[in-house]
Amino acid sequence: MNILFATSECTPFAASGGLGDVSGSLPKSLNKKDGVDCRVVMPLYSDIAPQYRKKMTLEAEFEVPVAWRSQYCGVLSLKLSGVVYYFIDNEYYFKRGGLYGYFDDAERYTFFSRAILEMLRHIDFGPDIIHTNDWQTGLVCVLINKFYRDDPKFYGIKTLFTIHNIQYQGKYGLDTLDDVVGLSPGESPELEYGGCINFMKGAVESADKINTVSPTYAKEILDPWFSHGLDAILRERQNKLCGILNGIDTDFYNPETDHNIAANYSLENPENKALCKKDLIQHFNLSDDNAPVIGIVSRLVAPKGIDLVKHVLEYILLAGIKMVVLGSGDYMYESCFRDFAGRYPESCGVHIGFMPELARKVYAGSDMILMPSKSEPCGLSQMIALRYGTLPVVRVTGGLKDSITDSGDGKGNGFTFRSYNAHDMLDACLRAKAVYDEPDNWQVLVERALGCDFGWQRAAVSYMGLYEEMAGLW
User: Fold this and answer.
1) Residue-wise pLDDT tens digits, 272-298
2) Most buried of 185, 324, 387, 398 (most Cβ within 10 A)?
């Protein structure tokens, strides 16, 4: 089976979040299966490092129609870790710093979506499935039906659309439809919604199948509380919607080989985790005692539940729990954490910004990771934390619900709370501390965490089942 994985970001080339991690890991896992050829296509951003650029080969050059425009497109390729990557080159659209946030993003990703389909006319690869991701590539699902179904090369191609975060839908004015997409008003009701065009809505309407990055999130987005306005459309298309829980790259996140942490350890030899905790405490200049450490590695914004943390942080510190925070976001929360670090320098350590190597130290050196999210499509931090033997404290939502169960039943792998309430979160933290204060019981949980497997092979099996269903093999 041939799969073309269309994405706006992918590690290790250019990434800004969870989509990049998925794009860098899932295709590799799929290609380990017999008879599968999964290839990735993404823009050739200027941020892509020279070490990769110099290894790329030019595959094709052609023109891409973008409404009334005709734009140059080059396709370069690179094979890495068993995966063929295609890079869509156009310096006007992609020779810029960063990935998103430009005034013409609608035009940039319309070009990218159209270029993906045009590319298939010029390379020696014919996919059975085009797997699109989020609004930046969702237009592929619309355009293939509008402009390409008369071409025999596209007859049997099916499209899958994955919603990684429904909050970001690609909403633009109706003038974009004619001026950028190349369709007249009324010609594409799939894209029109709420007085504007909505790229994600178009993909939901047009794709053969839709999925989200966790089973619970697939249910939650049918509710107005989570859907950001798309719940009615999704309920109409519920028959083609499912959820598959993401995984993590367990080779990349591996306490047994990670050179970023103070000492390596494993399920078989977990003792060195204590050295990682000592190193973390020293890094943040906290007092070196036996108190538990809760880590936060997150964007410091309200949807991540940081407002809950702000409300009860003083209670957490006074209860004898230390906290280390790594992240950036709203100035209000950044200032709040800096203030607590100044008032409680022995108990609270803060680094505003993001450093991947420091994130590893937090995952390995903390006793717990706090994720009180208001909404979490999947979440990766809780899986990474478990990989490093660190117990997640999470709110029951989205992928957090699908990956973490409360240890109060004697079998769980973390501590959970349900209500979006600061004192319920505080209670979960205090329950975690109560178990920590019983070293033998805590060690059982640490070893249980180290034994959890959230590698991509499990998710790859589920995706293969979905692809085969789409291709009509069932």
Assistant:
1) 999 999 999 999 999 988 999 999 999
2) 398
